[in-house]
Amino acid sequence: MANALIEVQNTFITLDRQYSLLRAACQTEQDREALAAKYAAAQSAYYACVNKMLSDDDAAVAALCTQLKTANKVVAQATEQMGDMSKVLDNITKALDLGSSLISFL
Amino acid sequence: MATTAKTLCDYYTALRTILENTDQLYRLNEKLYSKPYPDSNQQQVKQTESELEKRAELASDFSALSEQFGKLTGSTAPADVAASASKLEGDVEGLAGVTASSLEQNAVKVALQAVVTAIQEHKEREAAKAMDQATKGISDLFTKEAEVWNSTETTYSSIAATAAGNLVDQGVTDNTTLLKVALDPFRLTLGSAGNLNAQLAPLAKDQITAKQSDLDSSYLKATDAMKKSLQEMADRIHTVAQDKPMAFRSAPLSVSTVEGWAAQIFTAASPASGSPAVNSAKTEAK
Fold it and tell me: A26, B53, B134, B177: most buried by Cβ count inside 10 Å?
């Protein structure tokens, strides 16, 4: 149970820590808006998880947790890939999609 | 029992203060760093706050009922005991939200309904047994939800630390306060700061990291102590419900750890008053 919450929290916290650097690296307004939307989605996913905390006793949830953990490691390295903002945004999207899949088990 | 339940109320109220501070940080971040905080997300945070408030109120009313419970030893249950029981009945009905703990919530609801019914029907022995189930239920509920509340605290400390680090990076913090350790013993004050502020920025960031760790550690200790206090309360009531004599009646020692942590949160949130604002928080919420 705690694992799912921790991973969804990690996506949000990591993005919060990196936000200023990533925003400064955005070349276009479109990228800045996309980054802001990802931030809001990560924050929303975290509180959805808090408010409806789920159980990861289920094998499918446990597998999703593992995938999200891996995706979060990639997001944590986002500042090293700031030259390719579309790739950064794709990686964040992947983590958010996995978080959404977890929350769908609520 | 009343002391432990009161401490549980303070614990939940302190957590609610932390969540209110988190909400304020999100608003600051939106203005300062363009981090979005849409209305829908604000509502989600409010929902978590509301769940904490319900638990604080339940713990507060359970504390009141515990104090009244001793009066049941007479042949008739006084009216105020019945009134406390009725109030608690309403609180229990309102509990909802953190769905993973629904089993534990239901256990608390069923047990407290039994307490209320037994008190209203003047059945002391049944009331004691139901109280046994209720205290166990409250203890189990706390244990089950501990990870959620732990996450709430670490999110706050991380968001705050990031915001503080950004402000240091912007050069808008006064880092020369770090020099107090050298100057204060000699009653000296800083004259011209020169470029000391920039030189001290790395130390200021180290301090943020260290304090964040202290906040998290202090919270974990309080949670662990609360868990032990509730367990001890449940064990003591169980002893009484089994018609066995209770060896001691003082409040569990671990209660003071929780009270110390909660007082720190209340003082930080309201330096002027420096005291728990349980009642005012409840009134404000209503």
Answer: B134
ipTM score: 0.79
Exposed / middle / buried, residue B175 (Cβ in 10 Å: 0-12, 13-18, 19+): buried
| A60 has a chain B CB within 8 A of its CB | no
CATH number at residue A8: 1.20.5
Cβ contacts of A22 within 8 Å, gap of 6 or more = A35, A78, A79, A82, A85, A88
CB-CB under 8 Å, A55 with B155: no
Q: How large is the average pLDDT for residues B130-137?
A: 80
Angle between helices B124-169 and B201-241 (to 10 degrees): 180
For residue B113, the one-letter residue type is Q
Give the gyration radius of chain B's Cα atoms.
23
Give which of B52, B53, B99, B143 to mutate to test A binding, by max A Cβ within 10 Å: B99
What's the CA gap between A88 and A95, in Å, rounded?
11
**pTM for the predicted model, two decimal places:** 0.80
Q: How near does any CA of chain A get to the CA of B205, in Å?
A: 14
pLDDT at residue B97, as a whole number: 44
How close, in Å, is residue A57 to chain B by CA atoms?
11
* Residue-number span of the structural domain to which A57 is assigned: 2-103
B98, A51 contact by CB (below 8 A): yes
**What separation, in Å, do the N-terminal and C-terminal C-alpha atoms of chain B show?**
26
Cβ–Cβ of A51/B40 closer than 8 Å?
A: no
B286 band by pLDDT with thresholds 50, 70 and 90: very low
What is the total count of domains within chain A?
Answer: 1
**Does the structure show a pLDDT above 90 at B139?**
no
**DSSP one-letter code for B281:** H
Q: What is the pLDDT of residues B173-211, one digit of tens each?
A: 999 999 999 999 999 998 887 889 999 999 999 999 999
Spell out which residues of chain A touch residue B99, defining contact as CB-CB under 8 Å: 52-54, 106
Rounded to a whole number, what is the distance in Å from the CA of A78 to chain B's nearest CA?
17
